[in-house]
User: Fold this.
Amino acid sequence: MHTAPNYPFLIFNFQLYMQRSLQKEIGVFGSLGSKLTDFALLVKFKLNLTVVFSSVMALLIAATEPVSWLAILLFGVGGFLITGAANALNQVLERDFDKLMKRTANRPLAAERMTVSTAVLTAGLMCLIGTFCLSAFNAWAGLLGMLSMVLYAFVYTPMKRVSPSAVVVGAIPGALPLMIGCVAVEGYVSGLAIALFAIQFFWQFPHFFAIAWVGDEDYKKAGFHLLPNKTGALNESVGMQSFIYALFLIPVGVLPYALGITGIPSLIIISLSSLLYAGFGWNLYKKCTRKAALQLMFSSFFYLPLVLFALYFNKLI
Assistant:
């Protein structure tokens, strides 16, 4: 005699099996999502993309003939990986200080979700692959990419706790992506490469000072010296230096026109943008308020893309 199947028991076991399988899948994908989020934090994904954008724009401005999408992709990946390596090493060196600041306490190393060895290995791989991608254009591009990473991670990062001069040092690797973009297509350090480097170099000072003002409490907890005075005070000197550095952008902005790269429209846009940027620096000097610092900071976000687009589109006219 055949025994009838126990259907309720079979259904229950099937449901239990499916539930456990679903939990495992959720665990796997949840873990993967968490690791991707930590990787994005490690390489400072959003900031990294703005660096890649600037360098790609410089490449397009310098190019004398159409650049293939494959070349742009290769260059962008190389720039992203080199910048990511620098940011990862920065977090390795600052992990104990990042714990002290609300803005950075959730970074993977500070929160101990990632080991130092994993971060260093990741940085090393990104550095090697990124340098290879940039060197595919020419040796200059690869060399300058490596230089920017070394300066940022091993010179600027430790100097932040020693002297406000760290901002000057940090502005060099901060401006090198534009030079790298030019060098990648020109093959040498041209007048345009120097001009674009100078624009981003001087742009960074009001930008950094505004950020340092807004995040002053956090930075002081970690012992970082980013304000341009000996006492680290939030006073008129911050606004005045922001104003002066922004004014330097006016003569520097003339260089692409003087070199015959672009025309009058871009010259006018750059000059007016620089005056407006300097105006926000002057506003911080006069008011010395957090609101004025925020206005300067947000104006810096618009300045550089506007200038780069002006140079690029004026070149097309």
Remarks:
- The chain has two domains: 43-188, 190-317.
- The chain has a mean pLDDT of 90.
- The chain is about 80% helix and 0% strand.
